[in-house]
């Protein structure tokens, strides 16, 4: 049933897209179609983030920050958050691209990108988790999260709401309506001074910080993603699904891994945008497709070598792209649950060595796969249909983390 459910959702999404396209074709004559795509690339070692125009390869901005950064785009794509764990700070970059919906079409407004004067400081920030118009910034060294309202941030306001997650731990907070989903540390276990306690579960807090419902067990909780109205979390026992539950708070449901699965677990998750499903790792050399409402929620896909990175295509709904350490890029059909083609796109990058060694990362922009290649100071652009390189963008230093902002819309 799971495969049919996803296939039906895909057909519905495609039909909706055709309706949208047809409506757009009859838009007012003063609507001029416009596309804008920007890459935001952080250096592996240097404290710098660059904004790059995809079409021209021109650098639009170079932003000096405090430390090397992980990058996360907000749900709207108007803001990129540069999380600098070792420097105890998070910077925000306005992408300069904003969309507004008008029913039969959407407008796009394009400005210069800019580094926000608003920063968020705290001990060891590790996660920026977007959900709707908010982004939750979690600080491991404090066991607290700052909930940032994107509209206020872009107006230059530094206010944020604080969620207390009990104690310092490598945790996460995700907003869900009027509630916050908060990881729970094991405060009874003794840890060394330079270590943090493990995660043992997830709880929901209301607007006043009071817990609603029971804590859901989730050993070593790590990785989260949103798809439609659901949020998924990776656990040792399975994947924990949070569903909106009205005034009583979110409903938390564990999807245990099948008994016949090899011993491993999920710690990184991606959420489908136009369809409700999740893609997660399952150990280092497998991925798993998750349909929370399917009779058989899990479908396992074997990879030939260990995974370096993976990403969903927001426009071509069937496609996910998986880069493995041998330098091959694999196209996964999420409907059929199978690898349909592969091609070599970089030199091999081994996963052996330090976990923070420079390795390629993926993003999707304007029907192209963008791949950072830190060894050669390049962003490589690959055609997903042929898996052939169709262009390169030189980037000084060691381009590493990458996110995309952009799309098409009407311009007046």
Automatic annotation (TrEMBL):
Q: Which UniProt keywords apply?
A: Signal
N-terminal signal peptide: 1-27
Q: Which InterPro entries match?
A: AztD-like, Quino_amine_DH_bsu, WD40/YVTN_repeat-like_dom_sf
- Give the top-rank taxon of the lineage listed in the UniProt record for this protein: Bacteria
Q: What is this protein called?
A: Zinc metallochaperone AztD
Q: Which organism is it from?
A: Shinella pollutisoli
Q: Lineage from the top down? A: Bacteria, Pseudomonadati, Pseudomonadota, Alphaproteobacteria, Hyphomicrobiales
State the encoding gene.
aztD
């Amino acid at each position: 049933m799971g495969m049919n459910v996803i296939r039906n959702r895909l057909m519905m999404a495609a039909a909706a897209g055709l309706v949208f396209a047809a409506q757009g074709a009859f838009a007012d004559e003063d609507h001029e179609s416009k596309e804008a795509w920007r890459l935001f690339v952080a250096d592996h070692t240097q404290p710098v983030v660059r904004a790059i125009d995809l079409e021209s390869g021109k650098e639009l901005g170079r932003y000096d920050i405090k430390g090397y950064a992980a990058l996360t785009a907000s749900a709207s794509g108007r803001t990129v958050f540069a999380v600098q764990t070792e420097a105890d700070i998070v910077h925000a970059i306005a992408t300069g691209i904003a969309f507004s919906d008008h029913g039969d079409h959407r407008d796009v407004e394009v400005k210069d990108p800019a580094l926000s004067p608003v920063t968020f400081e705290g001990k060891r920030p590790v996660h920026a988790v977007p959900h709707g118009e908010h982004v939750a910034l979690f600080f491991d060294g404090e066991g607290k999260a700052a909930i940032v309202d994107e509209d206020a941030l872009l107006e230059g306001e530094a206010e944020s709401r604080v969620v207390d997650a009990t104690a310092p731990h490598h945790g996460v907070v995700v907003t869900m309506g009027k509630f916050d989903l908060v990881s729970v540390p094991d405060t009874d276990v003794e840890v060394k001074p330079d270590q943090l306690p493990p995660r043992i579960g997830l709880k929901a807090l209301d607007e006043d910080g009071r817990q609603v419902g029971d804590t859901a067990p989730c050993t070593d909780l790590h990785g989260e993603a949103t798809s439609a109205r659901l949020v998924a979390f990776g656990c040792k026992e399975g994947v924990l699904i949070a569903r909106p539950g009205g005034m009583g708070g979110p409903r938390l449901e564990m999807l245990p891994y099948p008994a016949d699965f090899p011993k491993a677990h999920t710690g990184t998750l991606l959420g489908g945008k136009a369809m409700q499903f999740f893609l997660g790792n399952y150990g280092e050399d497998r991925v798993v497709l998750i349909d929370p409402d399917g009779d058989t929620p899990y479908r396992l896909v074997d990879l030939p070598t260990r995974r370096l990175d993976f990403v969903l295509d927001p426009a071509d709904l069937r496609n996910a792209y998986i880069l493995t350490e041998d330098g091959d890029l694999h196209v996964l059909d999420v409907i059929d649950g199978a690898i349909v083609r592969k091609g070599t796109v970089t030199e091999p990058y081994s996963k052996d060595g330090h976990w923070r060694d420079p390795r390629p990362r993926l993003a999707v922009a304007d029907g192209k796969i963008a791949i950072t290649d830190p060894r050669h100071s390049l962003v490589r652009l690959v055609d997903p249909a042929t898996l052939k390189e169709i262009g390169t963008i030189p980037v000084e230093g060691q381009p590493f983390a990458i996110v995309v902002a952009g799309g098409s819309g009407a311009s007046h």
